[in-house]
Amino acid sequence: MATILERLGIQKRARVGKFDSATIARELGVFMNTGSGVTVTEQGALALSTVYACIYRISSTCASLALNIYQRSGREVTLAESHPAFDLCRYEPNGYQTAYEFWEALYTQALMYGVGYAMITRDNRGDATQLDILHYYDVEPKIIAGEKVYVVKDLGIVRPENMLELANHGRMSPLRMHRENLGLAKAVQDYGAEYFGNGARPTGILAPEQPMKAEQLAQLAKSWKESSDAGVKLLSYGMKYQALTIPPDEAQFIETRKFQAEEICRIFSVPPDLVQVPGQSTFNNVEQQSIQFARHTITPWAVRLQQEVDRKLIQSFQRPQIYSRHDMTDLYRGDMAARANFYTQMLQAGVVSINEVRMKEDMNPVTGGDVHTVQVNQIALEYFGQYSEKLAHESAESSGMETQEHNGNNDTDNDNA
Question: What is the SS3 assignment for 119?
Fold first, then answer.
């Protein structure tokens, strides 16, 4: 005879296609699963504004970085616009989503559940032709005959080469791992909602000085309920009101909410100021925090996706000449003054041309702007050798003239002698 949890598990499996017997009670909300008495699930955690903001900040930032396919030939690197994966990654992964929507959804699932899935459709040549997001609970990894495969609800078995995975470290949901922190944050939020929902009045009891009969208690309760909520309640003779809940100021309500928000930012490695949580930032270090966010939060996620795309969307015989990479330029653009200083130094060193700078700023090229220059009179690199020889020749001639003048002066001195 199946237990109640086993029956609930069967119902859940029929509904979502996957369940973990060790966590079925918690996920269904049968038992409280945190010390604060609050049940925390991935979907429920999104009700916390800081959780939602952190997931949105990371997923939207990663999705906004163009994922390009490049081709390397010797020392030349160009966009591989003719490669089948280029349009899938950059513009249209399927017929109902833009690239931004697709990658944002994949990153969101990885951030919430620990791993996000997308199924790859291929043509007869093995090239990817479509990418479709799959919900985490509709995919169940399994080992069949010593090989890892995926059992997908309504689709059956999918081989690993046809499944695009984006996983975090450990492939574990951060929302489950840190459910105690999230439970405390949710409990504080619920306390505030209950307190203000009660008209910002603490819950309490009426305590009589003398024993009361049932009829007297019923009359007292009726009188209390019928009295004005906005006005002053009048207590009968011998009655005292005793508050049971702690006022928010005594419970350090604001401080607790702020600390839990900072804890959530720490879980997702997001600087608090980027999700409007007051931190210790100043005007001088806000830009540094953005750089740290790009370097320590966004870059690891971008590398995970790039390597998975290289494995699954670029065939092995095409690697390493063809590879994927996120365009991270916008994350490090800085303000106008910083960009102007950067471009000036790069131009003077001959690293980039004027038109390459204009292209990064979405400006049209100018005639003669493809020439690379260096700081010495800003001459073209192809003429730098001639210019160097000219300087050496002029230096030699100058040295010869000085020698002749010196000898002439010596002859004059001898004649005078």
Answer: strand
β partners of residue 241: 206
- φ/ψ of residue 137, rounded to 5: -75, -5
Is 76 a member of any domain? yes
Residue 326 contacts residue 302 (beta carbons within 8 Å): yes
The number of residues in the chain equals 417
**C-alpha dist (Å) from residue 338 to 130, 343, 352:** 41, 9, 17
- CB 222: neighbour CB atoms within 10 A? 10
CA dist 22 and 44 (Å) reads 19
Total domains present in the chain: 2
Are 188 and 111 within one domain? yes
CA neighbours within 13 Å on the CB side: how many for 51?
A: 24
What is the per-residue pLDDT across 333-391, written as a single tens digit (0 to 9) for each? 666 777 788 888 888 888 888 888 888 776 888 888 888 887 766 677 777 778 788 88
- For the chain, the average pLDDT equals 78
Q: Which stretches does DSSP call E strand in 123-266?
A: 128-134, 139-144, 147-152, 156-158, 163-167, 204-208, 239-243
Report the half-sphere exposure of 140 (CA within 13 A, side-chain side).
15
The pTM for the full model equals 0.69
Residue 249 has pLDDT above 90, yes or no: no
Per-state percent for the chain, helix, strand, coil, to nearest 5:
50, 15, 35
